[in-house]
Amino acid sequence: MEREVNFNILKNGEGNLMLLVHARMGGVENSKVVYDGGQTALLHRTEKDIVALDFIHPAIRADLKKKKEVLIVEVDGGAIVREYMAPVQAVKALPV
Q1: Whole-angstrom Cα distance, residue 66 to residue 36?
Q2: Which residues of the chain have pLDDT under 70?
């Protein structure tokens, strides 16, 4: 599992969330975000490719936990490599 601390979560005027993360090698299949409301979420790009998103800002935690899905945007430098919707799976505790 990789860890990422340099990411952004943006919220638009309609309350939708976008996670901006560094692009990774390989495609995305059955992606999801697993989240327990704490400081870390797990982005499952594939079943085996999991990225821990550490230090989620307290001001966005409640919004993220309530969402059914979020937009994931993977970037390399200033270029968008891929974007996709990922469901948010709320759990009581992360399996870390």
Answers
A1: 10
A2: 96
